[in-house]
Amino acid sequence: LMNAWTETPTKWYPLPLAVGALLLVAIQYRKKRRAQEVIIDEEGREVIRLKGPWQVHVLGALPLRNFSRLWGYVNSLQLPVWFRPYGYRLYSFAFGCNLDEIEPADLRTYPSLGDFFYRKLKSGARPVDNAALVSPADGTMLHFGKVQHDMRVEQVKGITYHLDALLGVERPGSPTSVVQYNRDMSIVDDQEFADINGIEYTLDQLIGGSSTPNSPGNTTPTEVDGQRPNPMDHAAKNLAPQKFGERIDASVEPKGNLQDTLAHDTEVALEMGVKPSLERRGSMGGKNVRPGNSLFFAVIYLAPGDYHRFHSPTAWVVEKRRHFVGELFSVSPYIAKRLENLFVLNERVALLGRWKHGFFGMVPVGATNVGSIKVNFDQELRTNVRGKRPPPGTYTEAVYSGASRILQGQPLTPAEEMGGFCLG
Amino acid sequence: STIVLVFEAPSDFEFTVHPSQKVKVGQRLGDV
């Protein structure tokens, strides 16, 4: 064998032209097949699928949502009081938490690791810059830039996803189109469809117009104890329980008395540089940006040791949220570089609204260890729950028009706490 | 966990951070 390996002369000769041509055809065929892997549905939108190297497919085969809930359960267990300071200090040492800035500072007051993970910061621990856009969270800037003309956002350099897939697609037209959308997705059955139609809501009413529903016996809600009435309470009751793809009016927690609330709303309106009668354009996905404007994106990654509550990045009004139930892959930079469509596959809550320059959207994306997303002003929202998963790309939508009459949404000041991520 | 911001702004909007930079709540990310 050694002799054959060393003494056999190498004889080079040209390949026949046909073999070269065949090779080129094979390469072209492979390229074309890869391009065709982008599946388009009947409405011309890309169908989101798991794409990436083999490690990604192995991850995709794991019951990550179950792992996440189990992880949440384990971390909600109460720890012995004597163990808490040692355990949390060890965790802080391992993940780089700064214990000097947490409130309360006494580690024994955190019953479980889950509670410690969702810790608060001392007042004034984070000075707020006077810039148009400030960071909504502690973390690492993964990526930022301008959204390209074909509405694709860069996940990392070279890997993109469509803005529609991240935020959801707004169907144009009448209330029928909203309900029709549900029927198309086979989520709401005929009876539920009839119930929704029986109330005869217009689209404006359904997404937060000023008039009341047109059903018999309906009464206009009145103001009670300083709480702002929600004209869509009736709608919310009739649409309960939530179904995927439905649009409901979220019940919003009132912020103190009416005077405080008005002062808060006015502050946001002044920050936004607008009068209460806001122009309502450009708030639905930002496809029609104002002349001279562009769409921008920024991705912030929160590592396990970071403070996990998120705050408002600017003065803006949240008009609606769309809850997409999805996978719970890790969103670490390692996975983000390998798993295409990561942010549109994972469970997420798209909060959509407007700021002084037009459309503004903020999307907290869940992950395996932090599958639960809380939004302080949305008591209806439940994430990472057991049950049947809806088809990818569908979402439950809630509107916040009842939160502020003058701003037609949930007003937020820069750095105001909005919610956070919880373990599991 | 991750937070994605998508927003409309004047075309001369500029980010004042760089990729992989650590940021804190309230820190300037960008301005017009």
Describe the overall structure.
The complex is a heterodimer of chains A (424) and B (32). Chain A has 424 residues and is of the alpha+beta class. Chain A has helices spanning 2-7, 17-36, 54-61, 64-76, 84-95, 113-117, 163-167, 175-184, 190-198, 203-207, 233-239, 258-272, 333-338, 342-345, and strands at 102-103, 120-121, 133-134, 139-146, 152-156, 159-162, 247-249, 293-301, 309-311, 316-324, 348-355, 358-365, 372-375, 396-399, 410-412, 417-422. Mean pLDDT of chain A is 73; it is low at 171-245 and 275-286. Chain B is an all-beta fold and 32 residues long. Chain B has no helices and four strands. Chain B starts with a strand and ends with a strand. The chains are: A alpha+beta (424), B mainly beta (32). Chains A and B meet through strand 3, strand 4, helix 7, strand 8 and strand 12 of A and strand 1, strand 3 and strand 4 of B. Strand 12 (358-365) of chain A pairs antiparallel with strand 1 (2-10) of chain B.
Instruction: Give the helix/strand class of chain B.
Output: mainly beta
Strand order of the largest sheet of chain B: 2-4
Largest sheet of chain A: 6 strands, mixed
Compressed to H and E, one letter per element, the order of chain A equals HHHHHEHEEEEEHHHHHEHEEEHHEEEEEE
Low-confidence stretches of chain A: 171-245, 275-286
Q: Could you give a short account of the major beta sheet of chain B? A: 2 strands, antiparallel
Rounded mean pLDDT of chain A is 73
Give Rg of chain B in angstroms: 11 Å
Cα-to-Cα separation, first versus last residue of chain A: 60 Å
| Helix proportion of chain B | under 10%
Task: Using the alpha-carbon principal axes, give the shape of chain B.
Answer: globular
Mean pLDDT of chain B: 91
Low-pLDDT stretches of chain B are none
Oligomeric state of the chains in view: heterodimer
Proportion of beta-strand residues of chain A: 15-25%
Q: Given the C-alpha coordinates, what overall shape of chain A results?
A: globular
Distance between the termini of chain B: 28 Å
Structural class of chain A: alpha+beta
What's the helix-strand series of chain B?
A: EEEE
